[in-house]
Design brief:
Length: 416
Protein backbone atom coordinates (compact mmCIF):
# COMPACT_ATOMS: atom_id res chain seq x y z
CA UNK A 1 0.00 0.00 0.00
CA UNK A 2 1.48 3.42 -0.85
CA UNK A 3 2.39 5.71 2.03
CA UNK A 4 -0.07 8.60 2.08
CA UNK A 5 1.10 10.49 5.17
CA UNK A 6 4.83 10.33 5.83
CA UNK A 7 8.02 8.76 4.62
CA UNK A 8 8.40 7.49 8.18
CA UNK A 9 5.07 5.66 8.13
CA UNK A 10 5.39 2.21 6.60
CA UNK A 11 3.32 -0.91 6.24
CA UNK A 12 4.49 -4.44 5.65
CA UNK A 13 2.83 -7.85 5.63
CA UNK A 14 4.31 -11.17 6.50
CA UNK A 15 3.12 -14.58 7.60
CA UNK A 16 5.02 -16.92 9.88
CA UNK A 17 3.72 -19.89 11.82
CA UNK A 18 0.15 -19.11 10.87
CA UNK A 19 0.36 -15.50 12.03
CA UNK A 20 -0.09 -12.50 9.75
CA UNK A 21 1.36 -9.13 10.67
CA UNK A 22 0.81 -5.53 9.70
CA UNK A 23 3.38 -3.08 11.01
CA UNK A 24 2.61 0.54 11.64
CA UNK A 25 5.37 3.03 12.32
CA UNK A 26 3.75 6.19 13.60
CA UNK A 27 5.19 9.59 14.45
CA UNK A 28 3.76 10.32 17.89
CA UNK A 29 5.33 9.49 21.24
CA UNK A 30 2.58 6.91 21.70
CA UNK A 31 2.75 4.61 18.71
CA UNK A 32 1.36 1.34 17.49
CA UNK A 33 4.38 -0.32 15.98
CA UNK A 34 2.86 -3.66 14.99
CA UNK A 35 -0.44 -5.54 14.87
CA UNK A 36 -0.35 -9.30 14.64
CA UNK A 37 -3.17 -11.78 14.27
CA UNK A 38 -3.45 -15.53 14.25
CA UNK A 39 -6.26 -18.04 13.87
CA UNK A 40 -6.38 -20.79 16.50
CA UNK A 41 -8.62 -23.81 16.95
CA UNK A 42 -11.15 -24.11 19.76
CA UNK A 43 -12.68 -27.25 18.26
CA UNK A 44 -14.51 -29.73 20.48
CA UNK A 45 -17.16 -32.43 19.99
CA UNK A 46 -19.87 -30.49 21.82
CA UNK A 47 -23.00 -29.15 20.11
CA UNK A 48 -25.92 -26.86 20.80
CA UNK A 49 -29.28 -26.94 19.06
CA UNK A 50 -27.93 -25.25 15.94
CA UNK A 51 -24.23 -26.00 15.42
CA UNK A 52 -21.47 -28.28 16.54
CA UNK A 53 -18.04 -26.97 17.48
CA UNK A 54 -15.93 -29.57 15.69
CA UNK A 55 -14.37 -26.97 13.36
CA UNK A 56 -14.63 -23.86 15.51
CA UNK A 57 -11.81 -21.31 15.38
CA UNK A 58 -11.13 -17.86 16.77
CA UNK A 59 -8.74 -15.01 16.08
CA UNK A 60 -6.10 -13.77 18.51
CA UNK A 61 -4.67 -10.27 18.05
CA UNK A 62 -1.68 -8.47 19.56
CA UNK A 63 -1.28 -4.68 19.34
CA UNK A 64 2.35 -3.80 20.00
CA UNK A 65 3.17 -0.26 21.09
CA UNK A 66 6.37 1.70 21.73
CA UNK A 67 5.26 2.53 25.29
CA UNK A 68 7.31 0.88 28.03
CA UNK A 69 5.86 0.02 31.42
CA UNK A 70 7.93 -1.69 34.14
CA UNK A 71 10.72 -2.25 31.66
CA UNK A 72 8.58 -3.97 29.01
CA UNK A 73 6.85 -2.72 25.86
CA UNK A 74 3.08 -2.48 26.25
CA UNK A 75 1.17 -5.07 24.19
CA UNK A 76 -2.61 -5.22 24.02
CA UNK A 77 -4.29 -8.57 23.36
CA UNK A 78 -7.72 -9.50 22.06
CA UNK A 79 -9.75 -12.39 20.68
CA UNK A 80 -13.23 -13.01 19.37
CA UNK A 81 -15.87 -14.86 21.35
CA UNK A 82 -16.85 -18.44 20.63
CA UNK A 83 -19.56 -19.25 18.11
CA UNK A 84 -18.12 -17.06 15.36
CA UNK A 85 -15.10 -18.24 13.45
CA UNK A 86 -11.70 -16.55 13.17
CA UNK A 87 -11.69 -13.30 11.22
CA UNK A 88 -8.13 -13.17 9.91
CA UNK A 89 -9.05 -12.65 6.27
CA UNK A 90 -11.21 -9.61 7.00
CA UNK A 91 -8.55 -8.11 9.22
CA UNK A 92 -5.78 -8.56 6.67
CA UNK A 93 -7.76 -7.50 3.63
CA UNK A 94 -9.76 -4.55 4.99
CA UNK A 95 -9.32 -3.37 8.50
CA UNK A 96 -5.62 -3.46 9.30
CA UNK A 97 -4.60 -1.79 6.01
CA UNK A 98 -6.92 1.11 6.85
CA UNK A 99 -5.27 1.52 10.20
CA UNK A 100 -1.86 1.47 8.54
CA UNK A 101 -2.96 4.23 6.18
CA UNK A 102 -4.43 6.44 8.88
CA UNK A 103 -2.89 9.76 9.88
CA UNK A 104 -0.52 8.94 12.73
CA UNK A 105 -1.58 11.87 14.90
CA UNK A 106 -5.26 11.01 14.53
CA UNK A 107 -4.82 7.76 16.47
CA UNK A 108 -3.51 9.41 19.64
CA UNK A 109 -5.43 10.79 22.62
CA UNK A 110 -3.08 13.71 23.25
CA UNK A 111 -4.86 14.84 26.41
CA UNK A 112 -4.21 11.47 28.06
CA UNK A 113 -0.92 10.68 26.28
CA UNK A 114 -2.48 7.40 25.18
CA UNK A 115 -4.00 5.70 22.19
CA UNK A 116 -7.47 6.87 21.21
CA UNK A 117 -9.71 3.80 20.78
CA UNK A 118 -12.48 5.89 19.22
CA UNK A 119 -10.18 7.30 16.56
CA UNK A 120 -8.76 3.85 15.90
CA UNK A 121 -12.29 2.46 15.58
CA UNK A 122 -13.18 5.18 13.09
CA UNK A 123 -10.11 4.37 11.03
CA UNK A 124 -11.02 0.69 10.99
CA UNK A 125 -14.56 1.45 9.84
CA UNK A 126 -13.68 4.06 7.23
CA UNK A 127 -15.58 3.56 3.96
CA UNK A 128 -17.92 0.93 5.40
CA UNK A 129 -21.60 1.16 4.46
CA UNK A 130 -24.21 1.08 7.23
CA UNK A 131 -26.03 -2.15 7.93
CA UNK A 132 -24.79 -5.67 7.44
CA UNK A 133 -23.69 -6.14 11.02
CA UNK A 134 -22.22 -9.62 10.63
CA UNK A 135 -18.68 -10.93 10.43
CA UNK A 136 -17.07 -7.49 10.12
CA UNK A 137 -18.43 -6.68 13.60
CA UNK A 138 -16.45 -9.63 14.93
CA UNK A 139 -13.23 -8.61 13.16
CA UNK A 140 -13.42 -5.03 14.44
CA UNK A 141 -14.47 -6.16 17.93
CA UNK A 142 -11.40 -8.38 18.20
CA UNK A 143 -9.01 -5.55 17.30
CA UNK A 144 -10.90 -3.17 19.57
CA UNK A 145 -10.42 -5.51 22.53
CA UNK A 146 -6.66 -5.48 22.01
CA UNK A 147 -6.65 -1.69 21.72
CA UNK A 148 -8.48 -1.23 25.03
CA UNK A 149 -6.13 -3.70 26.71
CA UNK A 150 -3.22 -1.54 25.52
CA UNK A 151 -4.97 1.69 26.58
CA UNK A 152 -5.51 0.42 30.13
CA UNK A 153 -1.93 -0.86 30.36
CA UNK A 154 -0.55 2.49 29.19
CA UNK A 155 -2.73 4.18 31.83
CA UNK A 156 -1.49 1.71 34.45
CA UNK A 157 -5.01 0.63 35.46
CA UNK A 158 -7.16 -2.48 35.31
CA UNK A 159 -9.56 -1.87 32.44
CA UNK A 160 -12.63 -1.95 34.66
CA UNK A 161 -11.18 0.82 36.84
CA UNK A 162 -10.33 2.93 33.80
CA UNK A 163 -13.88 2.51 32.49
CA UNK A 164 -15.42 3.41 35.83
CA UNK A 165 -13.25 6.52 36.07
CA UNK A 166 -14.12 7.67 32.56
CA UNK A 167 -17.81 6.79 32.43
CA UNK A 168 -19.19 6.19 35.93
CA UNK A 169 -17.55 8.81 38.14
CA UNK A 170 -15.18 6.18 39.50
CA UNK A 171 -17.91 3.84 40.71
CA UNK A 172 -17.00 0.22 39.88
CA UNK A 173 -18.12 -3.17 41.10
CA UNK A 174 -15.31 -5.11 42.76
CA UNK A 175 -17.04 -8.40 42.05
CA UNK A 176 -19.40 -9.56 39.30
CA UNK A 177 -22.25 -12.05 39.32
CA UNK A 178 -21.56 -14.97 36.98
CA UNK A 179 -23.37 -18.09 35.88
CA UNK A 180 -21.88 -21.33 34.56
CA UNK A 181 -22.75 -22.09 30.94
CA UNK A 182 -22.63 -25.72 29.88
CA UNK A 183 -25.07 -28.53 29.39
CA UNK A 184 -24.05 -29.02 25.76
CA UNK A 185 -25.06 -32.05 23.77
CA UNK A 186 -22.17 -34.50 23.59
CA UNK A 187 -21.92 -37.98 22.10
CA UNK A 188 -22.78 -40.54 24.75
CA UNK A 189 -23.63 -37.92 27.38
CA UNK A 190 -26.45 -39.25 29.51
CA UNK A 191 -28.34 -37.89 32.48
CA UNK A 192 -25.69 -38.97 34.98
CA UNK A 193 -22.93 -37.18 33.10
CA UNK A 194 -25.09 -34.07 32.77
CA UNK A 195 -25.75 -34.14 36.49
CA UNK A 196 -22.05 -34.60 37.28
CA UNK A 197 -21.25 -31.56 35.15
CA UNK A 198 -23.78 -29.36 36.90
CA UNK A 199 -22.76 -30.64 40.32
CA UNK A 200 -19.17 -29.65 39.56
CA UNK A 201 -20.26 -26.08 38.74
CA UNK A 202 -22.13 -25.81 41.98
CA UNK A 203 -19.15 -27.22 43.86
CA UNK A 204 -16.99 -24.50 42.31
CA UNK A 205 -19.16 -21.71 43.67
CA UNK A 206 -21.70 -21.05 40.92
CA UNK A 207 -25.33 -20.75 41.99
CA UNK A 208 -26.99 -20.46 38.55
CA UNK A 209 -26.14 -22.86 35.72
CA UNK A 210 -27.25 -22.94 32.10
CA UNK A 211 -27.94 -25.85 29.76
CA UNK A 212 -28.78 -26.29 26.10
CA UNK A 213 -32.20 -27.25 24.78
CA UNK A 214 -33.61 -27.68 21.29
CA UNK A 215 -31.14 -30.32 20.12
CA UNK A 216 -33.45 -33.12 21.20
CA UNK A 217 -37.20 -33.63 21.36
CA UNK A 218 -39.23 -31.59 23.82
CA UNK A 219 -39.86 -34.71 25.88
CA UNK A 220 -36.16 -35.55 26.05
CA UNK A 221 -35.21 -31.98 26.90
CA UNK A 222 -37.70 -31.97 29.77
CA UNK A 223 -36.12 -35.15 31.13
CA UNK A 224 -32.71 -33.47 30.89
CA UNK A 225 -34.03 -30.39 32.69
CA UNK A 226 -35.50 -32.48 35.47
CA UNK A 227 -32.22 -34.34 35.87
CA UNK A 228 -30.41 -31.01 36.32
CA UNK A 229 -33.04 -29.73 38.75
CA UNK A 230 -32.31 -32.73 40.96
CA UNK A 231 -28.85 -31.20 41.39
CA UNK A 232 -29.50 -27.45 41.50
CA UNK A 233 -32.86 -27.55 43.28
CA UNK A 234 -35.02 -24.52 42.60
CA UNK A 235 -35.71 -23.63 38.98
CA UNK A 236 -34.34 -20.15 39.63
CA UNK A 237 -30.92 -21.80 39.64
CA UNK A 238 -31.28 -22.98 36.03
CA UNK A 239 -31.38 -21.15 32.69
CA UNK A 240 -32.01 -22.82 29.32
CA UNK A 241 -30.77 -21.81 25.87
CA UNK A 242 -32.27 -22.86 22.50
CA UNK A 243 -29.67 -20.99 20.39
CA UNK A 244 -32.29 -19.62 18.01
CA UNK A 245 -33.53 -23.00 16.86
CA UNK A 246 -37.32 -22.72 17.20
CA UNK A 247 -40.13 -21.48 15.02
CA UNK A 248 -42.97 -19.73 16.83
CA UNK A 249 -45.07 -22.83 17.46
CA UNK A 250 -42.13 -24.75 18.90
CA UNK A 251 -41.01 -21.76 20.97
CA UNK A 252 -44.45 -21.52 22.52
CA UNK A 253 -44.70 -25.28 23.07
CA UNK A 254 -41.44 -25.16 25.00
CA UNK A 255 -42.63 -22.07 26.88
CA UNK A 256 -45.76 -23.87 28.05
CA UNK A 257 -43.71 -26.85 29.17
CA UNK A 258 -41.10 -24.69 30.92
CA UNK A 259 -43.47 -22.49 32.91
CA UNK A 260 -43.96 -24.89 35.85
CA UNK A 261 -40.20 -25.00 36.45
CA UNK A 262 -39.95 -21.22 37.08
CA UNK A 263 -36.54 -21.05 35.40
CA UNK A 264 -34.02 -18.22 35.67
CA UNK A 265 -34.47 -17.48 31.97
CA UNK A 266 -35.48 -18.97 28.62
CA UNK A 267 -32.88 -17.86 26.10
CA UNK A 268 -32.89 -17.15 22.36
CA UNK A 269 -35.88 -19.26 21.37
CA UNK A 270 -36.00 -18.10 17.75
CA UNK A 271 -33.84 -16.49 15.10
CA UNK A 272 -32.16 -13.43 16.63
CA UNK A 273 -33.64 -11.12 13.98
CA UNK A 274 -37.18 -12.46 14.25
CA UNK A 275 -38.40 -9.72 16.54
CA UNK A 276 -42.03 -10.64 15.87
CA UNK A 277 -41.44 -14.15 17.20
CA UNK A 278 -39.72 -12.74 20.27
CA UNK A 279 -42.59 -10.33 20.89
CA UNK A 280 -45.24 -13.02 20.53
CA UNK A 281 -43.28 -15.31 22.84
CA UNK A 282 -43.02 -12.53 25.44
CA UNK A 283 -46.77 -11.99 25.26
CA UNK A 284 -47.26 -15.70 25.96
CA UNK A 285 -44.53 -16.35 28.53
CA UNK A 286 -44.50 -14.09 31.57
CA UNK A 287 -41.25 -15.41 33.05
CA UNK A 288 -37.82 -13.97 32.16
CA UNK A 289 -36.52 -14.22 28.61
CA UNK A 290 -32.97 -13.55 27.38
CA UNK A 291 -31.53 -12.79 23.95
CA UNK A 292 -29.10 -10.52 22.13
CA UNK A 293 -25.80 -12.39 21.78
CA UNK A 294 -26.23 -12.50 17.99
CA UNK A 295 -27.12 -8.83 17.58
CA UNK A 296 -24.01 -6.88 16.71
CA UNK A 297 -24.74 -3.15 16.75
CA UNK A 298 -26.57 -0.45 18.66
CA UNK A 299 -29.06 -0.26 15.77
CA UNK A 300 -29.95 -3.94 16.16
CA UNK A 301 -30.21 -3.50 19.92
CA UNK A 302 -32.59 -0.59 19.39
CA UNK A 303 -34.77 -2.65 17.05
CA UNK A 304 -34.92 -5.46 19.59
CA UNK A 305 -36.17 -3.05 22.24
CA UNK A 306 -38.63 -1.41 19.82
CA UNK A 307 -40.10 -4.51 18.24
CA UNK A 308 -39.05 -7.60 20.21
CA UNK A 309 -41.42 -7.28 23.14
CA UNK A 310 -38.58 -7.31 25.65
CA UNK A 311 -39.59 -6.26 29.16
CA UNK A 312 -37.27 -4.01 31.14
CA UNK A 313 -38.50 -5.29 34.49
CA UNK A 314 -37.58 -8.96 34.00
CA UNK A 315 -35.77 -9.83 30.76
CA UNK A 316 -32.03 -9.99 30.07
CA UNK A 317 -29.92 -8.68 27.18
CA UNK A 318 -26.78 -10.57 26.17
CA UNK A 319 -24.89 -8.32 23.74
CA UNK A 320 -21.24 -9.38 23.48
CA UNK A 321 -18.74 -6.57 22.87
CA UNK A 322 -16.20 -8.91 21.25
CA UNK A 323 -18.77 -9.84 18.58
CA UNK A 324 -20.31 -6.41 18.13
CA UNK A 325 -17.60 -3.99 17.00
CA UNK A 326 -16.01 -3.81 20.44
CA UNK A 327 -16.35 -1.50 23.39
CA UNK A 328 -16.58 1.66 21.30
CA UNK A 329 -19.84 0.41 19.80
CA UNK A 330 -20.93 -1.15 23.11
CA UNK A 331 -20.99 2.29 24.70
CA UNK A 332 -23.46 3.34 22.00
CA UNK A 333 -25.56 0.28 22.78
CA UNK A 334 -25.61 1.20 26.47
CA UNK A 335 -26.82 4.67 25.49
CA UNK A 336 -29.67 3.11 23.49
CA UNK A 337 -30.70 1.09 26.54
CA UNK A 338 -30.73 4.16 28.73
CA UNK A 339 -32.77 6.09 26.17
CA UNK A 340 -35.33 3.27 26.20
CA UNK A 341 -35.62 3.11 29.98
CA UNK A 342 -33.51 0.02 30.56
CA UNK A 343 -31.10 -0.39 33.43
CA UNK A 344 -27.60 -1.52 32.52
CA UNK A 345 -28.09 -4.17 35.21
CA UNK A 346 -30.32 -6.06 32.76
CA UNK A 347 -27.28 -6.80 30.56
CA UNK A 348 -25.45 -10.07 31.14
CA UNK A 349 -23.02 -10.41 28.21
CA UNK A 350 -22.41 -13.58 26.24
CA UNK A 351 -18.87 -14.84 25.80
CA UNK A 352 -17.59 -15.89 29.20
CA UNK A 353 -14.38 -13.90 28.85
CA UNK A 354 -12.40 -11.33 30.78
CA UNK A 355 -13.25 -8.41 28.49
CA UNK A 356 -16.95 -8.70 29.26
CA UNK A 357 -16.07 -9.19 32.93
CA UNK A 358 -14.21 -5.85 32.96
CA UNK A 359 -17.07 -4.11 31.19
CA UNK A 360 -19.56 -5.58 33.66
CA UNK A 361 -17.53 -4.38 36.64
CA UNK A 362 -16.65 -0.98 35.20
CA UNK A 363 -19.94 -0.05 33.52
CA UNK A 364 -22.49 -1.35 36.03
CA UNK A 365 -23.78 -4.38 34.10
CA UNK A 366 -25.77 -7.18 35.69
CA UNK A 367 -23.22 -9.96 35.41
CA UNK A 368 -21.31 -12.12 32.98
CA UNK A 369 -21.45 -15.54 31.41
CA UNK A 370 -18.78 -18.05 32.41
CA UNK A 371 -17.42 -21.15 30.66
CA UNK A 372 -15.69 -23.17 33.38
CA UNK A 373 -14.90 -26.20 31.20
CA UNK A 374 -15.25 -25.35 27.50
CA UNK A 375 -13.60 -23.06 24.92
CA UNK A 376 -10.28 -23.17 26.73
CA UNK A 377 -8.08 -21.24 27.18
CA UNK A 378 -10.35 -18.31 26.29
CA UNK A 379 -13.18 -19.08 28.69
CA UNK A 380 -12.83 -18.60 32.42
CA UNK A 381 -11.14 -15.98 34.52
CA UNK A 382 -7.80 -15.22 36.15
CA UNK A 383 -5.79 -17.89 37.92
CA UNK A 384 -6.38 -18.10 41.64
CA UNK A 385 -9.63 -16.13 41.57
CA UNK A 386 -12.47 -18.39 42.62
CA UNK A 387 -16.22 -18.04 42.31
CA UNK A 388 -17.81 -17.40 45.69
CA UNK A 389 -21.57 -17.74 46.01
CA UNK A 390 -22.01 -16.85 42.34
CA UNK A 391 -19.62 -13.89 42.26
CA UNK A 392 -16.09 -13.49 40.90
CA UNK A 393 -13.45 -10.83 41.44
CA UNK A 394 -10.96 -9.33 38.99
CA UNK A 395 -7.16 -9.29 38.99
CA UNK A 396 -5.64 -6.00 40.08
CA UNK A 397 -3.20 -5.64 37.21
CA UNK A 398 -3.17 -3.14 34.34
CA UNK A 399 -5.26 -4.03 31.30
CA UNK A 400 -7.90 -6.71 30.88
CA UNK A 401 -5.94 -9.17 32.99
CA UNK A 402 -4.87 -11.77 30.45
CA UNK A 403 -1.41 -12.01 32.00
CA UNK A 404 -3.05 -13.34 35.17
CA UNK A 405 -4.50 -16.31 33.24
CA UNK A 406 -1.42 -18.36 32.48
CA UNK A 407 -2.82 -20.81 29.93
CA UNK A 408 -4.30 -17.99 27.86
CA UNK A 409 -1.27 -15.74 28.17
CA UNK A 410 1.01 -18.57 27.06
CA UNK A 411 -1.00 -18.76 23.83
CA UNK A 412 -1.19 -14.99 23.34
CA UNK A 413 2.51 -14.40 23.67
CA UNK A 414 3.21 -16.74 20.77
CA UNK A 415 2.34 -13.66 18.70
CA UNK A 416 5.29 -11.75 20.14
Amino acid sequence: MPDTHSENQQQHWHAAGGAATVALELEKAVRIIDIRERTVSIASPIANAYIDFSKMTCSVVAVLTDVVREGRPVVGFGFNSNGRYGQGALMRERFLPRLAAADAESLVDAARDNLDPFAIWSALMANEKPGGHGERAVAVGTIDMAVWDAVAKIAGQPLYRLLADRYRNGQADDKVWVYAAGGYYYPGKGYAQLQDEMRSYRDRGYRVVKMKIGGASLEEDLRRIEAVLEIVGDGRNLAVDANGRFDLDTAIAYADALKPYNLFWYEEAGDPHDFALQAQLAAHYDLPLATGENLFSHQEARNLLRYGGMRADRDYLQFDCALSYGLVEYLRTLAVLEENGWSSRRIVPHGGHQMSLNIAAGLHLGGNESYPDVFKPFGGFADGITVEDGYVGLPQIPGIGFEAKSELYDLMRTLL
